[in-house]
Write a structure and sequence with these properties.
Helix content: over 70%
CATH class of the largest domain: Mainly Alpha
Number of domains: 3
Number of strands: 0
Order of helices and strands: HHHHHHHHHHHHHH
Mean pLDDT: 90
Low-confidence stretches: 1-28
Distance between the termini: 27 Å
Radius of gyration: 21 Å
Largest sheet: none
CATH superfamily of the largest domain: Tetratricopeptide repeat domain
Strand content: under 5%
Length: 256
Amino acid sequence: MSKGLQKWLILLVLSSLTACNSTGSTRTQYVAPDPEAAEINMRLGINYLQRGDYAVALEKLEKALKQNPNLPSAHNTIALLYQRLGENDKAESHFQEAVDRDPAYSQAQNNFGAFLCDQGRYEQAEQRFLKAVENPLYETPAQAYENAGLCAMRIPDSDKAEAYFRKALQMQPTLSKSLLQMANISYDADNYLQARGYIQRYQSASRWTPQALLLAIKTENQLDDQDAVASYTLILRSRFPDSDELQVVNQGLLDS
């Protein structure tokens, strides 16, 4: 799993704390021995997970689940931890627990979708992303649509991906991954003016990456704007001198 996706998953855990006690559980409910202590240990588990101290995070989260087996956020968080540790069976089991106990827990649905997409289970992942946005109280539906688009790109299904990216951008016009992917889709469709527009929007919304700069250079090269090509190349050379993307430019492989 990429570092960017890992960071996003942690943010999803933090944003989910207000949703952890929602109703709608489909699992048998047990009397929690100590729900307040479980909440504290769950939060401690998140903190240790963020620090990279997985052993202590696991200890706190297991304790939280002993104190309150009904806590969806603890299942969601320990699932993310097991995903980090490469224990995918345990991760899937806890993601399933989280969404079964609270189907309206959109962050867990979204995280489960990202997990399934990483496993190559694209149709199941799409179902989870769509389940996440069904909740009208979900605060970040654009992120779920963006994740659905990114997952569709892996199939690859650019038409489906484009539809999801457009929905994401309608809700949140500055989503950098969606903007860059739309630029890529436009470029591949030989719609270079549209690709330029998305790149310009990306430039206003996010910091340059080597990949984004290479796409900008290739787009302007197709549009025969050599001043723009030179400008973007200068940025790429100064900020990312050791990048593979700069080697592509230096070798004149812009049409490849």
